[in-house]
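ok posting inputs for the zinc ion job
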Amino acid sequence: MNEPRVEIVDLGTWGAAALFAEYDPEDDVIRVNARIVECMHAARGAAEAARFVACAIAHERYHRTYPSASEEGARRYAAAVSGLDSDCEQLLLRAAAQSPAGRQ
Ligand SMILES: [Zn+2]
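and the output
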């Protein structure tokens, strides 16, 4: 299997139902939400923003490899691969709580 492309693009408003990232099987591309990367960067710094990107990519790669796998499985895999002890959402919730951009 080839490697997917990765893009950091605006996937829409950041909020309760924010889309962190998505995998598009037609174009074989993982898209990470640039708004969330910016929010993470502002609230937690470059290292945490980079960890979010790594976590989001790992999550979407899991969906790509195992299309019928559970959301829970993707979260556990992403947490293990990116070295986060909590899952992406907890990291993002902490960032959102600290960033004005997270309260839109
Ligand atoms: Zn997922």
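notes: The beta strands are 5-9, 21-24, 29-33. The radius of gyration is 13 Å.
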